Amino acid sequence: MVNSMLETGIPRLDEYLSGGIPEGKTLIYLNHPGVEGDVFGMQTLYHCLTTGNNCIYIASSLHPKMLIDQFSEFGWAMDKYKDRLNVIDAYSSLVGDISSEKYIVPDPEDINSITEVIDQVIKDVPKGSVFVFSSLSTIMDLCGEENTINAVRSWNKSAKTNKIVNVYNFTAWPYTESTLAQIKTDLFNCVINVGGIAQQVIYGQYFGVAKADWLKLQEKSMLFRVLRPGGIKIYLPKILVTGPFNAGKSTFVHSLSTRAVSVDRKGTTIALDHGHIDYKGFSADIFGTPGQDRFDPIIKMISGEAMGVFLVVDSTNPENFNRAQQMLEITTGYGLPYVIIANKQDMPDAISIDDIRTRLNLPEEIPVVSTVATEKRGVFEAFEMLVERITGGI
Amino acid sequence: MEGYSLGIDKLDENIKGIRSGSNIMMIGPPMSGKEVIINDIVYNGLKSGDAAVIVTTREPGENVIDWFDYNNLEIPLDHLGIVDCVTKTLGVPTSETDNIKRASSPVDLTGIGVKISQFLEDFWMKKNIRKTRLCIVSLSTILMYSNIQTVFRFLHVFTGRVKAAGAIGIYVVEEGMHDSQAIATLKQLFDGIIEIKQEQDNHYIRIVGLGKKPSPWYEYSLDGAHIQLKEVKNGE
User: Fold this and answer.
1) Is the pLDDT of residue A304 over 80?
2) Which residue in chain A has the smallest CA separation from B85?
3) With a CB-CB cutoff of 8 Å, which residues 139-178 of chain B face chain A?
């Protein structure tokens, strides 16, 4: 017995979608270029096969004979499900190759040619089947934007009539604004953004639900990694907390975290503070480093894997700002986004935020947040600002 | 010197370094040794500690590495990434290696883009290498399977990534395979051009757009894996 909500098989996503995709609905994975978004459609296809569904895979940029090989990279044995998997070969004719598939698109550059084959397959497969388009953007590249948009409307209409679920992978190349707007708002019941966190290079990937018309949406996003084997796995980012000696880093880590431990001697951190935060749908592991320069290799080690940095300074002790700048230079060398924590702002001799900005010679766009870590004042605001800087406001 | 050099002395002397983030088209007739020149530029970069990403659309990834071996050029493999767009199209079951990632086909621009991004991240974040040379050999093969708008969109994104990463990109185009409008469209994306021409049995090279004025044409010959330039005495 197959569930009427179709699970995507992507960790946490089915939870966000209240169980999955309802029958007759359509979902698009809207992938930013350079991000491993195509694995989302593959993982959904494989999961649907393992949960007893009939599936149709529209292969647009790969010869179908390589499919088993491609899925096996992730440890997904497709040959076990051959009896429930049909492939529409929309590739071989393009490169003049021979195909042994039952369903072959004779001219992948003609949208009507694709639609005719899809219509035929819909007649042949049971209601409730799942269509996964390996790359809608490739179809769009070959057949044109307007033709493809019109065809998608008709495919989605058929899906509704035949209680089929259509799942699309789509790479959001810089198409026309009108095309991208229709894809983001009109054409699909559900839009999943799959994006990259980029500074100089893309160093993190996330997904989030941008639209799901069957539920009241809460903004949620998760970072992920793609493992071979394993597929998409949720990834908890590391956030580095650094700063000079006695700036209040350990207190900051503890006040921000839902749980935390420190390795210290006589109140001074000598190895690491470690905490975990789960705040407004965003989870992270937090690592605090000791302030003395002999521990700088630890900062470098964590910076190589971190997603963002808090630099904690003692607002009453500007003499230590040179050291703070040194520590910042180590982390910014890795291109990480950062937020300055102006701690101990409740003390009478604390200097102002503007003064701190000037003395640290900070660019205008870098947030300097007033905090009193002992009272948890400002710490969550700072966390939100760093998340905003890491994700670009997803 | 800030930025990059090609490692081809006379051209480097003319342009006095290539700014980080530059994207360069290399265009020339078939059989003029463009792959050798690209490999030479890659090798010179690797020797000086840069990383390199080669997108190969005509040769399997292993052949690219074998070329360096065959020519007795020792390269630091952990600085080299190859995006192989060929092997999977041959229907040969194969897996990826530390150096070679495989896109499904030259049509699979999404896959090519993902693999390039992965190498850029690997070099920048994990290996702490700040200079990378991205070479696409060749754009012409990609253009055989995808139309000009599609390739333009792809390049628009990735020339931007090259700029953001402070890398340089060199993109090989076969002269005579595309109409002049297609070439003009692509040129908008590039900061400079390495031009190659053939007259009778001789080959010439020059560089345009990266210095104050175009370099002179130099006659060149390929000595195994290296390019040798000589001045052209009587002008062009």
Assistant:
1) no
2) A62
3) 145-147, 149-150, 153-154, 156-158, 161, 164-166
3-state secondary structure of A340: strand
pLDDT for A392 equals: 61
**Tokens 């463009």, located at residue:** B34
Q: Which two tokens stand for residue A353?
A: 């935020």
Query: Cβ contact (<8 Å) for B104 and A141?
Result: no
Question: Residues of A with CB below 8 A from B164's CB?
Answer: 198-201
Give tens-digit pLDDT for A207-259: 999 999 999 877 677 889 898 999 998 877 889 999 998 899 999 999 998 87
Cross-strand pairs, A231: A227
Exposure on the CB side of residue A243, measured as CA atoms within 13 A:
29
Q: Which run of H or E residues covers position A21?
A: strand A21-22
First to last CA, chain A: 37
Strands of B132-137's sheet in order across: B100-102, B80-84, B51-56, B132-137, B168-174, B23-28, B192-199, B202-208, B218-223, B226-231
> Once rounded to an integer, what is the mean pLDDT over residues B14-19?
92
> Which pair of structure tokens corresponds to residue B86?
């060929």
b/e code B158-174 from CB counts within 10 Å (16+ = b): bbebbbbbbbbbbbbbb
Interface predicted TM-score (ipTM) = 0.91
Check if the beta carbon of residue A133 is closer than 8 Å to that of residue A167: yes
Contacts of A169 in chain B (CB under 8 A): 110
The alpha carbon of residue B201 and the mean position of all alpha carbons in its chain are separated, in whole angstroms, by 24
Q: How many residues does chain B have?
A: 236
Q: Is the pLDDT at B52 greater than 70, yes or no?
A: yes
**What's the pTM?**
0.84
Q: Which residue is listed with tokens 């947030």?
A: A367
Q: B188 CB near a chain A CB, below 8 Å?
A: no
Looking up tokens 């604004």 gives: A177
The pLDDT score that the predictor gives to residue B2 is: 60
Are A275 and A342 a contacting pair, CB within 8 Å? no
C-beta atoms surrounding A367 within 10 Å: 19
Q: Mind listing the pLDDT tens digit for each residue in B170-194? A: 999 999 999 999 999 999 999 999 9
